[in-house]
């Protein structure tokens, strides 16, 4: 075997070893996430059995983030419903129904869809009207971008105070809030015309340093 072929073989072997090592690390991380997700799910179920849905929901949320699964998602939807987050529960039940259908889990799909259908007539909806749409206007609700297609449309939201914000280039940012009661109800709120920012004033040029008096006085004539 020539020196060049031995070098190529060595590089291939090293590359393969690095790939195996990377896969091992990813598998180890995935296993750690799955174990943590299971522990969090068990803690969430324990809190549910105690009637503590407020404490259980964050456990299910973190478990779902670490290891997504329709079972965890279903439990999170149920938890949201119990704490009054009806829009979040409705949307998640629909997600569970879609995922269960794709997985062939007919019974779970049926139950999830039934739960979503039961919640839909009870939803609170918020209409965000934009009085003066301008180029570059960005509207947010609770830190989530609300696209132009959603302006003026009744959108399901969880009851409570919904924080609104609007920004645009060259305009003063605006922020406000809308208090949404439990549904069924539709609340309409408006984003006002954003005020124009005052033009930037040119910066004053720095004053020239004054020369010392001795430099300004005429030189004395020599005798």
Q: Would you mind describing this structure in some detail?
A:
The protein starts with a helix and ends in a 7-residue tail after the last helix. Strands 3-2-5-6 form a four-stranded antiparallel β-sheet, with no helix packed on it. Strands 4-1-7 form a three-stranded mixed β-sheet. Strand 2 (138-141) and strand 3 form a beta hairpin. It has two domains: 15-122, Serine Threonine Protein Phosphatase 5, Tetratricopeptide repeat (Alpha Horseshoe); 124-191, Immunoglobulin-like, CATH 2.60.40. The chain is of the alpha+beta class and 223 residues long. 49% of the residues lie in helices and 17% in strands.
Give the N-to-C terminal Cα separation.
100 Å
pLDDT below 50 for ≥5 consecutive residues: which ranges? 12-30, 215-223
Helix content: 40-55%
State the CATH topology of the largest domain. Answer: Serine Threonine Protein Phosphatase 5, Tetratricopeptide repeat
Average per-residue pLDDT, rounded, comes to 84
Largest sheet: 4 strands, antiparallel
The main sheet orders its strands as 3-2-5-6
| Oligomeric state of the chains in view | single chain
CATH superfamily (homologous) name of the largest domain: Tetratricopeptide repeat domain
Global structural class: alpha+beta
